[in-house]
Amino acid sequence: MEKKDIFAQIHDMETHMGDLHQELGALKYVVKELLEENQRLRMENQRLRQLLHQEHQDQQPESPVAAEGASAPAADALNPEGEEQENVVGEGYDNLARLYHEGFHICNVYYGHLRTEGDCLFCLSFLNK
Ligand SMILES: [Zn+2]
């Protein structure tokens, strides 16, 4: 093989590698977008399920509660509105913490985006509030 051919071959390989590198970068971007979209859809799905569940419960006839007698009102007394509100807030916090640990931003700067560079100070300060 002549030296000239070798250099031509190396040059070809270099070009090829450059193309591959670019392609890899583009694919990485697509995967990131898909993961973010997937997370958004999962959250939306969860929210819709909750709404559906709530609506379903709202539509339930009152009779089963009445049939159970005094137990249901007693449970209500144990769980006054204020406490219920607190539970909802706690649940929201848990969801956000889970989202963060699954690798997504929960800060208002990059919310819903994939954390590609480790911990985010904005998110952490939000979690520590
Ligand atoms: Zn963040």
TrEMBL record:
NCBIfam families in UniProt: PRK13169.1-5
Family, as annotated: Belongs to the YabA family.
Entry's cofactor comment: Binds 1 zinc ion per subunit.
Organism encoding this protein: Paenibacillus dendritiformis C454
Keyword Zinc: yes
Protein's cellular compartments: Cytoplasm, Nucleoid
InterPro entries noted in UniProt: YabA
Residue ranges, compositional bias (Low complexity): 66-77
Gene of this entry: yabA
Entry protein name: Replication initiation control protein YabA
GO BP term, example: negative regulation of DNA replication
Cofactor(s) this protein cannot do without: Zn(2+)
Molecular functions (GO terms): zinc ion binding
Function as written in the Swiss-Prot or TrEMBL entry: Involved in control of chromosome replication initiation. Inhibits the cooperative binding of DnaA to the oriC region, thus negatively regulating initiation of chromosome replication. Inhibits the ability of DnaA-ATP to form a helix on DNA; does not disassemble preformed DnaA-DNA helices. Decreases the residence time of DnaA on the chromosome at its binding sites (oriC, replication forks and promoter-binding sites). Tethers DnaA to the replication machinery via the DNA polymerase beta sliding clamp subunit (dnaN).
Record bears the keyword Magnesium: no
Description of how the protein assembles with itself and partners: Homotetramer. Interacts with both DnaA and DnaN, acting as a bridge between these two proteins.
SUPFAM superfamilies: Delta-sleep-inducing peptide immunoreactive peptide (SSF58026)
Keywords, comma-separated and alphabetical: Cytoplasm, DNA replication, DNA replication inhibitor, Metal-binding, Zinc
Pfam families: YabA (PF06156)
Cellular component, GO annotation: bacterial nucleoid
Chain sites annotated for binding Zn(2+): H105, C107, C120, C123
Basic and acidic residues bias spans: 50-59
Region annotated Disordered, chain positions: 50-90
